[in-house]
Each structure stands twice: as structure tokens, then as C-alpha cells.
Amino acid sequence: MTTPFVDARQVRRNFARVAGHYETSAFITREVDRRMLERLDYVRIDPQRCLDLGCGTGSSLTALRERYRDALLVGADFCEPMLRAGRREKGLLGRLMPFLKPQSAALALADAQQLPFHSAGFGLVWSNLLLHWLEEPRPALREVCRTLETGGLFMFSTFGPDTLRELSSAFNDGYAHTQRFADMHDLGDMLVECGFAEPVMDMEVLTLTYASFDDLVAELRASGDGCAMHGRRKGLMGRTVWQQARKAYLALAQDERLPATFEVVYGHAWKGEPKKISDGRAIVHFDRVKK
Description:
Layout: H1 8-18, H2 22-25, H3 27-40, E1 49-53, H4 59-67, E2 72-77, H5 80-96, E3 105-109, E4 122-128, H6 137-147, E5 148-159, H7 165-171, H8 184-193, E6 196-210, H9 213-222, H10 239-250, E7 258-271
Helix pairs in contact: 6-8, 7-10
């Protein structure tokens, strides 16, 4: 049995710890979500049921509600404190502004690799910055394909290999300090392998700048984006290690600001007609010959 790379318990702990203030801390998540929504402008769909996979506190559901007003919305996440925080925020908003139409989205505790939903139940599955937290994307991709109706759309974002490259190089101590990020082309191949048709992938690089090394680390921790790899340093990091990392990062400064690279990968793909039945036999279509 192979040793896993990603510590799923640590992923859950990281997000549980920040759930109460996540919405005010997760700047990069909100920005990528906004850019994903812009990409949705070019896709013509009218789904009756939408799933936000890895929904966190459910902020994406508000924008999806504005776009698909008559759709049934469901958010799923495997971190219960994040879901509780989302329910509290939506309840407070409803009390402060009762004239607003309720969001009417269900929030479900669920593992992306084993979803508790019927097959072919959703016309759209939306997922913002989830896949890099998983040990292996394929099980989740298969589940997404299963829960999508034929002709349904999967739209997602994740981080690519250049993400936080400056942080990794600053430590250079043999331990993991960031997640393991999949390449855009590999993800495209995985989509096809898991049953999707016509995958479209693109990527952009966002560079954020910080006044200090400590500001960067504090923001990553506050947004739940701390390293959750089994190969991370488990004990306390000594002062010498921190000082060496600060010094190495300071050498990258530009105009007295420290850069942090985020390679953002966007993808969407459609669920095509099934090619096999449940026992693995292939489906062959014959066109009727017109006389």
C-alpha cells in the first residue's frame, strides 16, 4: 500500500480553524471565483440543478443564484465548521435584509471522492480551488461525471505547479511547504479518462505582493491555505530556519515588495453520451438507413 501524499485530516483542520473569518481572509479564492464567473458568461446553459463542490461557506452559491434564479442549488464540502459558518452568515443576512429573496441552497457534508447524490442529478457542477487538496483528482472527477446529467457541464479551477514557487525555493530544506499541484495538460487527460468530452483548459499567472515574508505566511494560514502534505515539517520550525527563509525570500523583493506567484488553472468539460454500460460492455450506436 502506497503512502499518501496529502494529509486529508490536516486539510480539514486547516479550514476548520479559519471557518469563522474565512470570508474576510480568502482573497485569492474570491478573486479566482470572480474570474471563473466571467468565463461562465461564454457558456450557454440553463441547468435545473447546480452543485458547488468544495463550497466552503457557500459564497459562490450567491452568484450562481443570481445567474440561475430557478435552479435548485446544492453546496457540498467535507469541512463541517465551514458549512456551519456559511449557514450562520446566510441566516444573519436574511434577518438583516428580510426583503431579499432567500438563497434557498442546501449545504451538505460530503467527500468529493464519494458523493451522496444520485447519478445524472445535476446540469452544472462548479468547483473553485478544490482539486489540489485531494490526494488524486481522478476519483473526484469520476464522481462529478457520474452525478452530471448527459450534456451537463463541469467547470472548475485549481492551482498549477508554479504556485508559491518563491515560498518553496526560500525554504529549500527537503520538507514540503506547499501542496502538490497538477499540470494543466495532465488534468485535461484525466478529464477524458474519467468520461468527459471536449475539455477546455487555460491558465493565467497571478502575482500578489506583500510587505513582508510574515505577511504572506499569515495570509496563507488565515485563509486555510497552509501546507497539508504528509511531507511537511511536523514539529515547530526553529528560529534559524525562519530567518534563513526570510532572508532568501527578501532577495526576491521588487520595489520593496515580495512577490507570490499563483498559477491558476481553469477548465470546463461536458458529460457526453456514455460509451459503456455498468458491466463494462461498450455501447455501439447504429444509424437507421433511410430507404
